[in-house]
Write a structure and sequence with these properties.
By secondary structure, this protein is mainly beta. Among the domains are: 2-48 and 66-182 and 445-468, Immunoglobulins (Immunoglobulin-like); 184-304, Immunoglobulin-like. It contains 3 helices and 31 strands. A 6-stranded mixed β-sheet has the order 13-21-20-15-18-17, with no helix packed on it.
Length: 469
Amino acid sequence: MRRRSQRLALALCALALLATVQPSAFPVTHAALPGDATFAAAFVAMPPTLTPAPSPTATPTPTSTAIPLATLAGRVWFDANKDGLQDHNETGFSGLMVRLYTCAGQEETHTTTSPDGLYAFACLEAGSYSLRFMVPAGHVVTQADQGEDDSLDSDANAETARIDCLPVQAGEQQLDWDVGLCSALSITKSRPDGDVYDGRAFTYDIQVTNNSDLLLPQLTIKDMLPGGIAASSVEVSPGGHFDGRHEATWTLPALGPREVVSVWLRCATGESAVSTYLHNVAMARSAEAPDISAIDVAFVHPARATATPVATPTGSITSSLIVAKLVDKAEAEVGTTLQYTIVVMNDMLGGRDPGTVVRLLDPLPTELEILPGSVSAGLQYEAAGRTLHWEGSIARGGSVQLQFAAVLAPSAAQYRSVSNNVSVSDAFGQVTWASAHTQVLHLEATPTPTGRAADLCIWLPMLFRAAQR
């Protein structure tokens, strides 16, 4: 693949040079840049038959020097699960500025990432260069050098958002200098009272941290209570509000740099909750930071006269349910309809079967409005709690696919992105969750190729990378 890319780079950079020297002789047109772009579709050159003009002198005059072929390129993506690796459902981060420096600190040029998160600096002279990624407020760089595949990890320093002093040889194509960004917020959820007993009050503690050096405005913390909780028993910490049904909310004007805020919620189980599992989801968001979530699952033990611990049926059983959640648009404007697909697979072919009882919970954020009639068969939407539910069984080796559509509401305009999370529990109470993210477009101008040689140097490596993916 690398040899093929180098040959194509040589041919197309030569074409760029000719287009600069004789623009009327080699017209170059640009097609759109789809995710599966190929070079044949992206560039169409139609050189006409050339007739040499008589020269007044016998001495040739140099007109240009050769264009260097070195390239630095990569992808910036949103690392939703903060594992430092590019997963198949994690989207590119568009519109982020990337700056190119010499190792002495002099800025050479800059560019912005494409809708797929791709960036490139091409036609570079051999030397050593540094890359700086201008991380927007509400985000931080994910952990670097995770896993064994260099084409999937993040390469920037998490503290400086830089990749420093990369040696580049003439003709070298370095296309995998990738960077993952994740929410600057982190959230933890715990039950300090331990096991849950039917009819006894217990507490959820929620802690939210700003991991960045910037103030994050308009912080909202939500706790979405499961159906097994008695609404009349709910108490919330000062500053919180309970809607009387399913949701507790805390709103803060801002969360300072490296600041930590803690809230709590106290409640008790209601009727028919004994011997069931409580799935409780907490979420935090800021006007500038993507959503984050934490899930707590508790088995409700029968009421006892003493607090003698009783073993929870989950034991050391490991679930083999696989959950994926996809959205059809990585970025969208307010008013756009988003199509969501949830796939749950039972990959346990032997041993105890986790698929005998499967429960799914998908609480919609306020920035999404369900599209009437879009919910697939078997999936139930509870309007009061703005939550999608599904319960059933999945045979060994089988799967279930559920779909629904939602419209990006006007309230999404104040955020950079909207996340939708789903949690799935199996017959042993083990929980797996997945999320889908869509960046909110704010009608900003997007640069497009113009046909000049300099633009070819910018867009060529993006095509190389798209063809390799």
